[in-house]
Amino acid sequence: MKGFGISHLERSTVPVDSPRSATSRLDKTVVYVSTIGITIVLSDRAKLLSGAKMLGEHRMTGADKRPRIAFLGTGAQGASIGADFALAGLDVTFIEQWPEHVEAIRRDGITVNLPSRTINVRVPALHLCQVAEIKEPFDLVFLVVKAYDTKWACQLIKPCLAPDGLVIGLQNGMTHEEIADVVGRHRTVGAVIEIASNMFVPGITNRQNDHDTSWFALGALDPANQDRVEHVAELLRHSGRVEVLDDIHSAKWMKLVVNAAELIPSAIVDLPLADAARHPGMLEVMREAGYEAMQAALADGAQIIPIIGMSAVTTNHPERYVDQIFEEVLKTFSQADTLTTSLQDWRKGRRAEVQEVNGLVVDILARHGRKAPVNERVVQVALDIEKGVLLAQPDNSGLLIRTDQAVPA
Predict the structure, then answer these.
(1) What is the pLDDT of residues 140-175, one digit of tens each?
(2) Checking DSSP bridges between strand 110-113 and strand 118-121, what pairing results, if any?
(3) Which of these ranges, 8-12, 45-49, 359-363, has the smallest mean pLDDT?
(4) Is 408 helix (H, G, I), strand (E, B) or coil?
């Protein structure tokens, strides 16, 4: 499959399991997604193709002047964003390590359940072992794997990246520097993502934020590439709100601050995020983890800047910022049943990004001769859960609360 076009039909007679098409209902509109169609009604094609020269037009000829795009990692987040790209008529390929997921996408397309609608689209999907078969390089690779998988994933895809191609790390943690170590700073775009989603069934992702409440930030590591990042942002706006920032290092630290407060602490007590924050004593624990993370961010040279659409903050009140961003995540970017990605990982039997988030806070402060007792305790308890010494359960809150209560006010 080369690409996708979209035509509006009053009624589609094409079966959903057709190998060449799929139907989707979008706000009472039936959309026909064809592997050979060229009409696009869900996006402005002029905007879609703007900046194509910046993104590799020199390798594209004829009518197909779209950048070749890969999504390396198509779990809950990558699959839903990639589906938006495919629906917009972009040339997208999925590359995934979950074999059943690849086969489900090949058979049925990728299905994304959103709060008020469901979409389904056919997308070419490759197993990891098929990366060695790729002949034409990618202009853009959106890396949507776990932070601890960053290095090997970059090494895997590097031979398939165009000489002037870009890798965009849509990940938790401070992965942008690790990406740059493999592909070079001139080919690295740092990114921040704020979307709540989950996936437990191959081929189906449940995204709890539609485009209006999905948020991204992008920033080049090499300032000379910042204009190209603007064009990447135009593509990513098919999936949500996007800001292009000059200081992506600080933006990623601000996201890590809230991740340190929410991801592993809520997973330890085996509760949805909102329930974990209401559990007796846990809000104070989560905030303290965030406060320590903010101190690590500042020690690492980050500035306090607004992210996820927040208004300007008072930079001399770092703890007030932590409270505000945590409240914004609970209010706008999560629902009553939202499970953090870490708890989803544990329920699937996988390890979570413990060292890459809370562990990093401990490490950074240790380099500056300071301690992070709450984050250190979070790491200890989380690793015990991953070793099978403990079960994730609400009673674990006591293990964290005692540490928090011992922290000087």
Answers:
(1) 999 999 999 999 999 999 999 999 999 999 999 999
(2) antiparallel
(3) 8-12
(4) coil
Fold agreement between 5-246 and 250-406: no
Q: What is the DSSP string of 196-221?
A: -EEEEETTEEEES--GGG-EEEEEES
What ranges do the domains of the chain cover? Answer: 5-246, 250-406
CA–CA distances in Å: residue 71 to residues 75, 97, 123, 153, 187: 10, 12, 11, 11, 16
Considering Cα of 277, then 279, then 283, then 286, what sign does the dihedral take?
negative
236 closest CA partner among 57, 67, 58, 2: 67
C-alpha span between 112 and 24 (Å, rounded): 10
- CA–CA dist 225, 32 (Å, integer): 36
**Location of structure tokens 């990513």:** 236
Give the number of residues written for the chain: 409
Does CATH number 2.40.50.140 belong to domain 5-246? no
In degrees rounded to 5, what are phi and psi of residue 13?
-110, 5
CATH architecture of 250-406: Orthogonal Bundle (1.10)
Q: The whole model's pTM is what?
A: 0.84
In 10 A of CB 35, how many CB atoms? Answer: 17
Rounded Cα gap, residues 253 and 173, in angstroms? 8
